[in-house]
Each structure stands twice: as C-alpha cells, then as structure tokens.
Amino acid sequence: MARLNLKNVNKRWGNYVAVKDFDLDIADQEFLVLLGPSGCGKSTTMRMIAGLEDVTEGEIWLGDRMVNDLEPKDRDISMVFQSYGLYPNLTVYENIRFPLRVRKVPKDKHDEMVMTAIRMVELEQFMHRRPAELSGGQRQRVALGRAIVRKPTVFLMDEPLSNLDAKLRVSTRAQIKNLQSKLKTTTVYVTHDQIEAMTLADRVVVMNKGEIQQVGTPTQIYDHPANTFVASFIGSPAMNLIPGTLRGGTFTGDGITVTGLTAPDGDMTLGFRAEDAEITESGGQIAAPVYAVELLGEASMISWRLGDALVSVKTAKDYRAETGQMVEASVPAAICHLFDTQTGKALPR
Amino acid sequence: MPHKTFLAFILPSLLAMLLFVALPIGSVVYQSLFIEHEQVMTEVETCGPFGCTTERKVDAAAMQELRDAQPAGRFNGLGTYFNSGHLAFDRIGQIWTRSETWGGFFNQVMNLPLYKALIFTLAYTFIVTPCVIVLGFFIALGVNAIPGLIKGPVIFFSLLPMIVTPLIGSLVLYWMIDSRGIIGAGLQALFNNPSLSLKASPTLTWITLFVYGIWHNAPFAFVVFYAGLQGVPQDTMESAMVDGASRWERIRFVTIPYLLPLATFVALMQLMDNFRVFEPIVGFSAEANATSLSYLIYSDLRGADTPLFASAAATSVLTTLGVIVLLTPVLIRTWRDFNRKA
Amino acid sequence: MARPTNAQPLPLMVLSLGFIALWLIAAAFPFVWTAWGSFKVEPDFFSRSDWTNAITGVQTIRQTGSAFTGAGYEGAWLEQEFWKSVINTAIVTLCVTVISLTFGTLGGYALARSGYRYTFWILIAALIFRAMPHVTLVSGYLLPFFELGIWGYLPTTIIVLVAINQPFTLWMLHSFFLSIPKDLDESAMVDGCTRFQAFRLAVIPVMWPGVVTTGLFSFLLAYNDFTVTSMLLTQENQTMVPKIASFLGSTQAEGKVMYAVAAVVSAIAPLFVLVLFFQRQIVSGLTAGAVKG
Questions:
Q1: Minimal Cα–Cα distance from B157 to chain C, Å?
Q2: Residues A197-211: pLDDT tens digits?
Q3: Which residues in chain A have their CB less than 8 angstroms from residue C115's CB?
Q4: In CATH, what number does C75-292 get?
Q5: What does the alpha-carbon distance between residue B249 and residue B256 come to, in Å, rounded to a whole number?
Q6: N or C: which end of chain C has fewer CB within 10 A?
Q7: What is the ipTM of this complex?
Q8: C141, B27: Cβ pair inside 8 Å?
Q9: Which domains does chain A have, with CATH numbers?
Q10: Across-strand partners of A287?
Q11: Number of domains within chain B
C-alpha cells in the first residue's frame, strides 16, 4: 500500500534548521500539497521523501518499508522537477522510456507502456522530437509522462507549473488533477502558489520556516486559518490583518472599532476577508479616506491605510470613489477572526 | 551526495594531486634541510720512474656508498637557506655596513643571485600584469566595434601569441630581435646606432622580456574582456544613453564596473602565471641579465654536473612562500565570500 | 542592429581600427615572418646587409638554386631525428588529455554536486596547487624519481603532467557541471539510476562541449610544457619543446640555426590548425572560469 508516513522528520545543515519536526500521515491515493513561501522547507521535505537529501533525524515510511537509507532508485517513486530534468539528447519517446530501460523492465513491454503514457499526456505528435524543440508546456508534459510510465507508488511534484506562463498553468493544472484522479496514485505536490494548492489538494500542509503551520482541507485552511501566517498567505487578496486591543468584547485599532466580539481582553490582531466586508453609507466600523480604488473586472477593490496596515474591501464592479474621499465599510463581528498578537495563534470563535 | 560516493568520484583526481603536487612540496621542504655529501678523499700513491707522488682523489666508491645510504645528503638544517646563494643575511649585513648610499646598497644586493631573481620576478609580475589588463581591455573594445564579418579572423590571429608554446614564442621573437633579424636591424637603423643590441644591456633585456610577457598574455585578457563585453547589460547601457552619458562616461560608469570582476579574475590568473616566469628566459637566452626564481631552480638542477638538490629545494620553498603571500588576499576574499554564502 | 547612438564618430573609428591593425601585426607578423623564413638559408633569415633578402631569398637562390629550400626541415626532422620527438609529443599529449579528462570529469562532477564544506577546501587547495611554479614541483620529484628508478620514462612524465593539470581541469569542469541543472541527474536517479549511471547516462551526454573545451586546454598544457618534459625525460624520450631547446645549445654553428627555426615552425603548425578549428571552444573555455569565479 502506498501510505506515506513522516515521523518527526528533521533536516539540519550545520546550525541551519531547514525542516523541524515534520510529522504527517499521508493516506493512500491522497493528493497532498505542501504550500509555503520559498525557503520554508517544503522542497527539502519532498527531496527527503525522494531520497535526494539525507534525513538528519526521524523516519520516513513508504507503506511498510522504512526508506531512510534507501537510494532514490530503490524507493519506487517518481518525481517531476521544476525545470523538468529532461534528457536533452533523447527524444520525447526515449525520455519517457528511460526509467524502463534503467530499471531493466523487459524490452517487449516498453513500447506499450511508453505509448500509454504518451497518450495520457497527449504528446503523440511530438514523440520523435527532442526537448529543445518543444514548448514549455510540452516539456512539462514529457516530464509528467516520464513520471507515470512505470506506475510508481508515489508521485512527487516539485513546483511543476512555476516555469509556465499563466494561461498554460491553468490548463496543465487541470491536466494534473485529471491524471491523478485516473491513476489514483498518492501524490505529494510542492508549490508556493496558494491557488494551485486550493484547486489541486485533498489536503494542504502550510509550512513556514521549516515548521508545519496548519494541515487541513483547502476549505478548512481558507475558512479557519490557524494563525496570522496562514491567514496572510492564503487567499487573494490575503486576509486583512489589523493590530489593536480587545476590551470587553470591543476591538479598537487604528481607524477601526468592532463591537460584539467574544474573547478575553488583550492585544489582538483582527482579521477579515475583503469579500466578507461591505461598503456602507453610514455606521461602518471603518470610516477613512480612500487610499486606492482598483478595478478587478468582476469587482472593485477599495483600500484604506489604517496605521501601518493596508485594508481592502471588495465591492460591486460599478462602484466608483475618488482617492482621498471618505468611505465607510461595515465589518460585523460575525466575519471577524481574532489572533493573539503575541503568538499569532487564532482564538476560537 | 553521501561522503562515500563523493570520495569514489574524486579519488583518482585527489590521489594524483596528493602524490604529484602535495607530496613534492613536502619532498622539497625535506630536501632543503639537507646538503650534498662532502667529497670523500683518498690518498693514492702513484710511483713512476722518477719516484713516488701521493695524490688526493675523490673516492668514487665511497661516495656512491654514502649516496646510497643517504640519498638526500647530510643534514644541514636551515643552512642552505642562509648561505650566499639564497637569503645571504651575512652578506647583506656586510653590504649594509659597507655601503654609504641606498643606491650602492641596492646595487650590491642585486648581485646576490636570489635577490636578483626575486626582484626580476616581482618586477615582471607587477609590470606585465597591469599592462596586460589595460592592453587586453582596449583590444577588446576595439574588436567589439569592428564589423562582424572580420571579427572571426581578427580573434583567430589575436589568439596566436597566447596559444603558441611560450618557449617557442619567445624563440620566434628572439630571432627577430637578433641584430641581424628584422626588428633588431630595424631598431639599429631607427636609432642610427649599429652596435645597438637588445641582448647586451640588462635594462634592454628586461624591457624585451616585459614586452614579450605582455605580447604573450594580452590575448587572454582580451578574450575574457571581449566575452564580458557581450554580456554588458543593454538596459543599463540604454538608460545611460537616455540619461545623456557620453561615450566615455558610458564606458566609465557601465562597462568598466561590469567588467571589474573579470579584471580581478584576469589579474589573479596573471599574477600566478607571471610569478613563475621561466621559459622566456631560456628562449631569449637572457640568464646573464635577468633570472627569475623558477630559472634559478632550473639552473641548480640542470647547470651543474650533479644536480644541486638542496639549493634548488631551498629556492623552491622560498618561491612557494612567495606564491602563498601573493595568493593571501585572494584566499581571504574567497573565504569571506564562502562564509557569507553558507 | 546598428543603432545610430552606437555608431562611432569617424576619428574614433579610425583610431580604433588603426589600433586593432597594429595589434594584429604584432600578434601575427612574427609567425608569418618566421614561417616564411624557415624556407630560406641562414644568411637570408639573418640578413645583415638587406632585410628584403629574407623575403626574396637572394642567398637561398645563390646556394640552392631556388628561392625556397626545405634544408632546415630535412636537417631537423631526419638528421636531428625531430620525428622521434614528434611521436613522443603525440603519445604524451594524447595520454595526458585522456587521463586528465577522465579524472577531471569524475572529480569535477563530485565537487559540483556535493554540498559539503570540504568541497570548498579541495577547490582552494587546487587553486594553491594551480599557482605553484611547476619547476618547484619538479625539484621535488627529481631525487625521489632517481631513487625509484622511474626517471626518464614517458609514463612518469604523463602522470606528472596529469597531476599538474588536475587543479585547472577540476576548476573548469566543476564550473561546467554547475551550469548543468541538478534536476537532470536527480531525475535520472529517481528514474532508477545509481549515481554513476546518472553521471554516465544523463550528465555526460550533455557535457560534451565542456569536455571538449577542457580537453583542449589539457592538450595545450601538455603540448606546451617545457619545464616538466625537459627535466624528467632522457635525451631519446624527449618531446618537441625540450628537443628544440636542445637544438639551441648545439646549433650555434652556421647552418644549424635553421634546423631550430624549421623545428619551431613544425611545432607551431599543429597549434595553428587547432585554433583554426576550435577557436570558439578556446574563447568559451577562457571565459568559463571568469564567468563563474
């Protein structure tokens, strides 16, 4: 079975801690996304699973095998790299056949397996070309084909879409999702793009500075961010975060007062999503001169400067206001999240 | 990469370097502490019709035995370093007390073989290197501006002085500056002095060697700078134009800063190569007027009937120290860079 | 794309073209002159009376009846047995190049892919080794080689040249390997290769340009070496460069200088061809170290 267990995995280079106490069970057939900013340890975690980096501490179990000391080739995984790692001297067909050749799969099966993979990634017309003659998206599909050709127990994908342009990214994303649901292979996918994470994942692991911040389904992570880091990383635009204090259920920050909150007194950070708040004529919790008005097409975005924080609210696409004009927004307690300013952790609502 | 794999990959290379580069350095240090055996003399009596004479002769058999027992010679400590062929502190002391003026002191020190070689080597290194960088830079600018069609042939001919074997290149020039050669004869005609010879005076020999060094090394600097020029950021160049910089200002504020790291690289390579200047001295037969540290070692090993291992070794150790001093700034910088990255 | 702002004003253009022309003459003329002169007799090559003699070959016509003579070449190649040195040079340069590249690619790859700190120290040691004057190393070999009885043979010289060449080869190939994405060999390893297979099957096929360039420089080092070959080889095993040097001592007598001239031109000819065919690789090789370092 292709369950993947990481037990308290740590990676250190000298004093530098790249991954700290990474502990996670990945179920069979699950699509798991590791999400975080660059340098957060997500790629290192994946490379440890692949066997390209040594594990400093902890254990990695693939099914019922402890794979810490196995060479990458003996782990029965396949991996798609950010810059594809195609063999430039081989044709598309030979690139996809390469894993079969070096793994000594009987020769008579090669053609059938390679052709199946080529059909799945829709590269029939290009199979005799070399990588240099292909576009970025096609190269990416060769890498995918090479990964699926020998039906490994686990797929690893390291930012496979980040070298593609925005339009291609959307279509290749859909293709990956489709392939995974057909093949039902356990997949670990690394990205720094939260939209990729939300669209692809069964579960998302948000990482920062080598530590897991939150594990959950995309909805859980979007609706209930565990701390200010997750809140500010997920969503486009990210959640508005305003520092202030809570006294007797009333939150006061620079240019904003929200009443009716239930939480103990103290230094708090108030968060709410731009699409949850509304522009209002009067009685809003925010009343300040407009900093900028941006037209998004399907909506307009109004923003204010409250202290150091830039706060935005989404409104109807035909809403117009001048820079500097006083505009009010209603931010009811129901849409608000509260985070402890000291620890950054979310308070129960 | 695990340590074991790394070792397996690098072993042949590392072994070759340890055996034939690191070990010889150790061997040189060891040899420098010993000196050739004293000659073993025996008295041989030869009797002729007019009576007998006793002669003192070198006992070859006994010498051989000694050499076999102690191939490196007898222990001499640091003696070789301080003798008159090397650091010669005694002689310098004497010269110091005797000479009245700085000039006189300097002239006499210049007669000590090691100092003579050291001064030439340093002069060569520190005159040739900057000249090479400047000349190479201007050639690169010039070649960059010529039409694309003739660039290839121009680069081809420009490479020749560097690619050709140093000894052979210096021979080619040597024959041309011979008083019967085209340059030598041409100079005589130019200065209207039929006895003018570039080989006769020390100053002219030095200048000849410097010119050879610049001629031989300029192509290297040229190629590096030329390649660098292809990568000068066009955006910066164009924004400088838009800002109204003149041609010279563009070179001064865009091109040169961009090429500076390359210049450091060229300087480093040139310092290393020029410090071991050797072949041109052989090629130009210039040993009477100019010797370098490398040449000194060579002549110790080749000149005498039996190689003077100790003397050569001592000079080698001193040369190695020179190399390390020369490299220190580079090493310190590399170390800092490395720590910043890590 | 000639933009008007890039066009040089006329005086500057003339100056710069003149400078380049001057440099070209300085760079190429000595070789042309010597090559031409090698087909003359000595009184023409060293012409006291009139330098145009060297071009027209007045004395050569008087002595041999033709404006060109191969006497220098005949004397050098046959009488002085220069052909033997040519064969020795061929053996030495070929072996040095092949062995240097084998050792160098393995070592350079390891240095480029290992992230540990000791790679830095190995590279620094190599840099110091690179700076060592060769003759100081030779003075370290001579006595041990005499003692071991391996002095004078071609294999000894070959391995010594390989070792002396290693620091440079390592640095150069190291920087070439760094320019090849790590993804390539890592995907090969995930696909089922051992480290060595990944090196052989995935990396080496794309490394050829770097290997050729580095090979050129290994070749040049071995070909151009005087220090090592002149001190470590016996008379009969001599390669071209020390052989030419030995001509100088023995050929001061009239007529023999032309042997040396002919030998010199013979030794330059292969280099000429080399630059002709590999100009681009030489240029890229010289800059490879600079761009990275």
A1: 6
A2: 999 999 999 999 999
A3: 13
A4: 1.10.3720.10
A5: 10
A6: N
A7: 0.89
A8: yes
A9: 4-227 (3.40.50.300), 237-340 (2.40.50.140)
A10: A328
A11: 2
